[in-house]
Amino acid sequence: MAKEKRPNIRGLITRRFYTFFIIILAVFLYLLFSLYKVVVLKGPKFRSEAMATYVKKRKIEATRGNIYSDDGSLLSTTLPKYRLGMDPSVLTGNAKADEFYKQHIDGLAAALANFFKDRTADEYKEKIAAARRSGRTYLLLNNRLLDFQEKKKVLSFPLFKEAKNSNKSGVVFDKINVRYAPFGQMAYRTVGYLKDLRDKGRVGIENSFDKELRGEFGEGMYEKMDNNTWRPEPGDEPKLPVAGVDLHSTLDINIQEIVESALLNGMKKFKGNYAVAIVMEVSTGKIKALSNIAANPLSPTGYSETYNYALLEARDPGSVFKLPSIMAVLEEKNYPLTKMVNTGDGKFRLYNGVMSDSHPLGTISLEQVIESSSNVGTMKLVQEAFGTTNNEKFYNYLKKYHLIESLDFQLKPSRKPVFPVPSKWDGLQLLWSSVGYSTQYTPLQILAFYNAIANNGYWIQPIIVSKATRGDEVVTDYMASQVRDSKPLCSPETLQKLKIMLEGVVTKGTANNIKGSVYGIAGKTGTAQRTVTGAKGYRKGNYYTTFAGYFPVKNPKYSIIIAVDEPKGNSEGTYARQVTAPVFKEIADRIYLRDMKLQQTLRGYLPDSLNKNKLSSTLHPADQNILFSHLGLPKVEENGQWLNFNLEKKTVRNQAITMTPKTVPNVVGMNLRDALFALENKGLKVRANGFGTVTNQSIPAGTAAAKNSLVFIQLH
């Protein structure tokens, strides 16, 4: 039997060893080559990319300019906020730093937990300790933004406080500029808003004047500390930014408050889709107040400003457009106000269209056409003046009245009216547009026309920002580029007729429910049927209501337009007479009460019936001369002090009122005008409710008067 051959175990092991060795060597050489590629061949590129990621050139934001009201009150400003971080590396490296850290870390962690209330003290302590162990040079402690007072408080925390003078606490405050509105939601949409200075959702003045407010960016090298934080690179010499300019708006914060309050009252009563109110100064075109409110279930009042309907939402204007139509008629034909118009059964039929009056009026005068807001009367007058062949002439009148082109208003976009050129008119366009249908206008476009009537016929472009300044220097005077017509829109005769009719609307026409004011109102109601989304044509019962006018009637200072879209029905109705005219009067009444220049001078003597009664009132210093010089009452010393005036059976007793400096005055017993004067002269902001004399004030008399504090006063 042959002997079995034994395998060569040693050779087998040797071969396997060499095979394994060769594999390991190949892997090693591959890794070595890869390392060579990374470090030597591609190293410069990777290092460059890393530097670009963690150290790179960044823009430096300029200080954004402020926005002011007409009296210099801040409407929007930039405030510095701070994000809290620290550099744990300054608390390591030697025994002294370690001992200092151990002494104060527990106190710091407890203070942070108590201040931010988002982590426990142990969690803050571990967060700092972990960053310290890993050698990190930056740790974001909390993402919440701190104001200046909170920053000061944080610096009093353990460890931060003990080391702040030696700069070894490691505390880091990253400054972030944020926008702040001192008056909160007042003029919210008009002034505009932005969450931070990089916000893309800005609107209003903040948006339209963004370039001017933003200034010029600087540039510098920054080191990235974490996802949200960059620190200036030591030794870098940055290009410094140029601060933005300050903008001075034409808004009057007191009138703005009056407008917002009155508009809110109207919306609560009639619950429309939205409401608009604009107040313009007649002689200058300055917008003194602008408010838009719409339903918002998330707002405490149920309403808020979500869209600028005054500038962007165009509707069929309705009967307020009859005035430019009648102006064109009067310019063309020079009819007297006594010209008679037969409105028949209150229906005007043309082709397949029928336009109706609210009720038949029969034969009425031209003056009554506007006073009673007759659709039929207006259309017949326009048809008589322009026929069916003078479409171009009527259109050119409207163009002259600035009712065809955009206002080119400062807030963008500036919407253009929707009014087709005559070449595209159908048979109904001329007459239907003459009464405010088949066209679209924003409230501001209509107000600009009515303001021209109040301004003796001279049209002036509305303006909301008067100038831009840097320090005491006026950089841009926007009033210098404001468009002002050098000629009136119409003849003096036509203007006088229009003014008579507008005053008649209030004294004996469709708005006679707001007659009887001391100062007098002139204006025009407008109730237009609305088109309904998804439906063809107009639907009765869905209205867009307006009232446009001016006051005081003899020497107009302010023009106003009120618009409410789709007011809901109540027992009084949903026409402009019931909806927008009362809001107009509430605003006009309250402006008149607070504007001393509008007050009429008292003349003559008190009647015997009044002298036999007992009178008691708080007397404004400016009224003392009137009472004691013109009304035959005993003379008193005029030292500029307020008086408690008491009259009983022709006996006058006066007691001077001492108002302590820098404290809230006692305004109980004063009328609204005097209360506003007393409180606002102390730097306080006032919101009033009711009419008559003040019965209650929210901040007690004698309290320290903090500037811009809000005081609520109740009148009965």
Q: How is the main sheet built?
A: 7 strands, mixed
Overall geometry comes to extended
Provide the β-strand percentage band.
15-25%
Please give the radius of gyration in angstroms: 37 Å
- Our count of helices gives 22
| Mean pLDDT across all amino acids | 84
State the end-to-end CA separation.
136 Å
What share of residues is helical? 25-40%
Structural class, from helix and strand content? alpha+beta
Strand runs, count: 26
Q: Uncertain spans, ≥5 residues at pLDDT below 50?
A: 49-53, 601-606
InterPro entries: Beta-lactam/transpept (IPR050515), Beta-lactam/transpept-like (IPR012338), PASTA_dom (IPR005543), PBP_dimer (IPR005311), PBP_dimer_sf (IPR036138), PCN-bd_Tpept (IPR001460)
Protein name: Penicillin-binding protein
Domain PASTA: 658-716
Keywords: Carboxypeptidase, Hydrolase, Membrane, Protease, Transmembrane, Transmembrane helix
Q: What does it look like?
A:
With 716 residues, the chain is an alpha+beta fold. Strands 2, 3, 4, 5, 8, 16 and 17 form a seven-stranded mixed beta sheet that branches. Strands 11-10-9-20-19-18 form a six-stranded antiparallel beta sheet, with helices on both faces. Helix 3 packs antiparallel against helix 4 (121-133), helix 10 (253-270) packs antiparallel against helix 19 (576-594) and helix 12 packs parallel to helix 14. The model is unreliable at 49-53 and 601-606 (pLDDT under 50). Its main location: membrane. This is Penicillin-binding protein.
Keywords:
single chain, 716 residues, alpha+beta, seven-stranded mixed sheet, six-stranded antiparallel sheet
